[in-house]
Amino acid sequence: MTDDRQFDVVIIGGGPAGLAAGVYAARGRRKTALLEKGVIGGQIALTELVENYPGIKSINGFDLAQEMLGQAESYGMETAYVEVSGIEQAGDLWTVHTSDGDYTTKAIIMTAGADYDKLGIPGEEKLTGKGVSYCATCDAAFFKDMETIVVGGGDAALEEAIFTTRYATKVTLVHRRDELRGSAILQERAFANDKIDFKWNTIVTEVLGDEQVTGVKLKDVKTGEESEMATSAVFIFIGQHPNTDFMADLVPMDKGRHVIVDEWMKTPQPGLFVAGDVRQNSARQVASSVGDGVTAAIGAEHYIADKFPESELHSAEPAEATATA
Fold first, then answer.
1. Is 48's pLDDT higher than 80?
2. Which of 139, 194, 254, 262 is catalytic?
């Protein structure tokens, strides 16, 4: 990262949406910075195998993120590992406050994503990507003809349990209450599915396994009785929270605090774009997040070209020129 903190585009978040935005913004010769507080790739970096990204049969999630990062940086994107604490308008520009000082930019693309709510139990973190998953749509196919567990009782848990039955021989839905919270239609579908079993008034207290999930420890919340259950996978759906705290007073949000945007990922604030899991109605898939990032970058380019017509293009040349769409 250079000492000059003035940019055309600042991207907040280094997941697939942010990385894709970085490729397009930097390749468009806009001076671009990507700010990431953790690991490049976000949630995808924790995925052992990605098999549903078009054009790539199979790749480790961390490796895919590194490929995206290298591509963006080859076009001149700068990367800083800092935590963003806030953003504010400064005339026609934006100021981004971080743990390592402020950045000034003409446009912001917010792609900080959402974090899954976790159980916080032994074995959960260690076995994430090795049988513990927060996305059955992404990972259920890895457990064909196996028995799995889904934790939760809302719409997401029911949808993913039903989806998982396409592959698993049996899906046990573990819920801490004695009734589900999901919509009536999803409950009807789940109860009618003979591959789904239910464990009521039960919580998972530990995920078992060394290199791969082999089972879980369970506890009945009413009787206190403890037991173990063998399983090949634990899909956890107890909620998620988008990383939008510092945007609460700036943009409209839905009840889940996801930002509401238009088809160009624009917010009502000039020069502020939001893409990926942090926006309302995101599909929460790598491919869709990449599309969001591309759309936001094109939207930001249109905004900068109209708002700052005299802007000079960034002089940095890509490390390797390639012909891409």
1. no
2. 139
CB 67 within 8 A of CB 79: no
Q: CA-to-CA distance for 289 and 315, rounded, in angstroms?
A: 28
Q: Are 232 and 143 in contact (CB under 8 A)?
A: yes
pLDDT digits (tens, 9 = 90+) for 105-155: 999 999 998 888 899 999 999 999 899 999 888 889 999 999 999 999 998
The architecture in CATH of the region 118-236 reads 3-Layer(bba) Sandwich (3.50)
- pLDDT, greater one: 289 or 47: 289
Which CATH number among 3.40.50.720, 3.50.50.60, 3.40.50.620, 1.20.1250.20 corresponds to the domain 6-115+240-307? 3.50.50.60
Asked about 3 being catalytic, the answer comes back as no
CA distances from 251 to 205, 221, 248, 259, 317 (A): 39, 41, 7, 7, 35
Distance CA(323)–CA(178), nearest Å, equals: 57
Report the C-alpha gap between 154 and 137 in whole angstroms: 16
Whether residue 321 has pLDDT greater than 50? no
Which ranges in the chain are annotated with CATH 3.50.50.60? 6-115+240-307, 118-236
178 is an active site residue? no
Catalytic residue among 138, 197, 210, 292: 138
pLDDT of residue 317: 55
In the residue annotation, 135 being an active-site residue is answered as yes
- Core vs surface per residue 82-99: b (16+ CB within 10 A) or e: bebeebeeeeeebbbebe
Q: Of 4, 92, 135, 245, which one is the catalytic site residue?
A: 135
Per-residue pLDDT, averaged over 14-43, amounts to 95
Average pLDDT estimate for 161-171: 96
